[in-house]
Amino acid sequence: MKVPEEQFRGYILKACPGQTRSGRWSAAVQITSLQGQFSDFFYSDDGISYILEEEAAKESLNLGKNLVKKGMI
Fold it and tell me: Are the beta carbons of 59 and 20 closer than 8 angstroms?
């Protein structure tokens, strides 16, 4: 799968879904400022996992957008 990436409000969001021991997928995102001054990984800790990697990638980008919208970056 090609890793989804998009720009959102001055940041680059890159989906980084991870596979769990049970073979399902969890959401994670790398957020980098467009100026390159900030870069960090964020992992979803809600206990939700996904059957498809594509689902987890979509939720990873949603996680990144919500963190940016709420000013948590």
Answer: no
pLDDT bin (cut points 50, 70, 90) of residue 2 is confident
How many Å apart are CA 44 and CA 67, to the nearest integer? 11
CA distance readout (Å), 48 to 9, 43, 72: 26, 11, 21
13-30 pLDDT per residue, tens: 999 999 999 999 999 999
56-70 per-residue burial string, b: 16 or more CB within 10 A, e: under 16? bbbbbbebbbebbee
Q: Which of 25, 24, 69 is nearest to 13 (CA)?
A: 69
| DSSP letter (8 states) at residue 45 | -
